[in-house]
Amino acid sequence: RRNEFWLPEFRRVTTLFVNLGSYGIKHIEIVDGVKGAIEKLQDIFLMIQETVFRYEGVINKLFFDKGKANLLAVFGLPPFAHDDDAKRGVLCGLSIMGLLSKSGIEGASLGITTGLAFCGVLGSTSS
Question: What is the pLDDT of residues 8-32, one digit of tens each?
Fold first, then answer.
């Protein structure tokens, strides 16, 4: 049996939401072409992923909303929970915004919140 089972519980977590602003699908297709767009987005998300992992957060999802690239990361989930997850989330957010600015991404925004969330496995592996 794989070691992926966690008991459902209310946990104090910090959630980080990153919106790449004006840097969306249409923008990168016009500037870089489709192949360049995919490569550029891959580079950006890899940079963000490395930053989130450095602060021991977990990427919950990457998604597009109205053609804009977004990312949701969480700090405080097992096995990477720490007493200072709120601080880690803020420091991670500041690092990401600095990296995006250096990469020429304009209009990016960031949201951070800390609070109780219900965390547990969704679905079932049994028939």
Answer: 888 899 999 999 876 555 555 556 5
